[in-house]
Amino acid sequence: MGEVRRCRDRPLARDVAMKVLPHGNARIARWRFLREARVQAQLRHAGVVPVHDIGLDGDERPFFTMSWIEGRSFREALAAGLARGAALDVLTQVCRAVAYAHARGVVHRDLKPSNVRVDEDGAAYLMDWGLAKLTCEEEEAEPITDASGAIETRAGSVLGTIGYMSPEQLRGEVERVDTSADVYGLGAMLFEVLTGAPLHPGKRAQRALSILRTDGASPAGWAPALTIPPALDEACVAATRLDPAAREISASELAALLSAR
Question: CA 175 to CA 126: how far, in whole Å?
Fold first, then answer.
């Protein structure tokens, strides 16, 4: 959704992350960019990076600034051999941030290790809200507002990352994409943390076929030589069912399960 630069906020003597929309983007991309800033700014949670400012740069390109998080992506941490316990701690934090977003009526729609940043103290931050969908399912929750004028996602549109997106996202069933789609992404990440391998490997087409053919992924069944806690194995199976209605676990329940492991 844009390029991110590390910049210096001289008046406040701090480093910030400045996200800029590249030249040549269509109107809908500009709206989505503005929408990302608005949604992220309203999600006030320890696991969501605060937004500071929004505007146009000297070349009339939209930008917004947010706190700079020193660290690395969850993908980089896993590739470097992050211990399972530490990785589960990171995933627990991600689940809590997702659960908070769901309570505010926001579906992320692009959960994956590269969209999580881990700082030097092990704190996790969920990034890149550019594909977020507003649902406002919880009647008692204070809903996120969207005054950006962004165009609604059309039926048949495929948004997300193949390998972590849910089957309904891959099929372009926009009307069926709700909080359970994020649960699928969390389940795919949990599978990877427990087994050390992606749930849907291979090239793009292979990953897509794997998504459409896998109905409940069991880490213990895939890697019987590893010690997989039964409760986490069952949670992963529940989170990665083909039918969204069959994913009988929420992000908050998954967070509670991971924290109690």
Answer: 24
